[in-house]
Amino acid sequence: MRATTLTPHLARRTAAALAGSAALATIAVVAPANALPLQAGSPSWVRSCTTLAKGDTMSCHALRVTDTTTALTPSGYGAADLRSAYSLPANGGAGVTVAIVDAYDDPNAEGDLAVYRAQYGLPACTTANGCFKKVDENGGTKYPRADRGWAGEIALDLDMVSAIAPNAKIVLVEASRATTADLGTAVNTAVRLGAKVVSNSYGGSESSNDPTYDKQYFNHPGVAITVSSGDSGYGAQYPAASRYVTSVGGTTLKKAGNTRGWSESVWNGAGSGCSAYDAKPSWQKDTGCAKRTIADVSAVADPATGVSVYLTYGGNGWVVYGGTSVAAPVIAGVYADAGAPSAGSYPAAFPYAHTGSLNDVTSGSNGSCSTSYLCTGTTGYDGPTGLGSPRGTTAFTG
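The line above is the sequence of Peptidase S8; the predicted structure tokens follow.
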């Protein structure tokens, strides 16, 4: 991965952030008990949302790398790397509002976003210039309590949308709690506030109520809603299983000497599987699942090929993140680059009409399953990576 040197101005800002956060506890440099086994040579990481608060049913999908020294210099993939990997423009997103939906509050969200965008030469996105807005789940300013784990997720999501769609406007909608009802209310608020793309990087167990939740919270024609597929390998989660969303799986992304300049394989942690409750959307034609199959498309998620994020609430500056929490806002940014979806459309269907405009991911596995393609990369559609990763914006255009 390419490291980038901070300008003196940013170095001073970062040093101040380090000093101001010196009292924060250091995260252990071992993966938690519920983490996937680490492959040889891969980094240690922790789940950003390691435990659920009382009553919470959803967990964020951000994985924070712990054996990369936090410093004044980013060490993960940056904005230009990601746009290069997915053949995206440097000035995308103009005229589109992207909403980030997460639980709890990151009190440093706007300031940290400013550092990330300045580091990578992206235009400023602030409350003052009308580009950035933070609201609670009902659209007001009664923000929920702050949470260091979810703050990492928020910073990751904001940075990834900025990297991919630097000219999009961003609305951060913070749910009061990590429940389907609160996060779903936040999705509805995001759409009411004008978002044409909504990114969601969280999930939980499926339930028989999910088809009802679909109608209440995720059925928004004309809006692209992306959801991360999960970080625990083969197995379905909700809301990735919703028939109305674009479910985003995960890859291992590496620089290569091929024509593309990059290679991808299935990340072994990417979620996939068959929904027990959600009906299969009409555009999904695979035969291994009678109901909804996860995922639809994919992007980088492996912590070993992670991305740079700037974080000062729950972090000390530059950190590296992985997980399908990376992939969901990346795909949200690609939808924004493609332009606002047409009224009445279901953007989850778009990639299925443009399969030739995606990078097919044909190797790797995320576990064991009775129907091979549901957990193994193969030519054409597969569970962990769906139809593949972006190659430009065509596959995300109606």
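Note on the example: The chain has a mean pLDDT of 90. The helical segments are 8-20, 79-85, 109-119, 148-164, 180-192, 210-218, 324-338.
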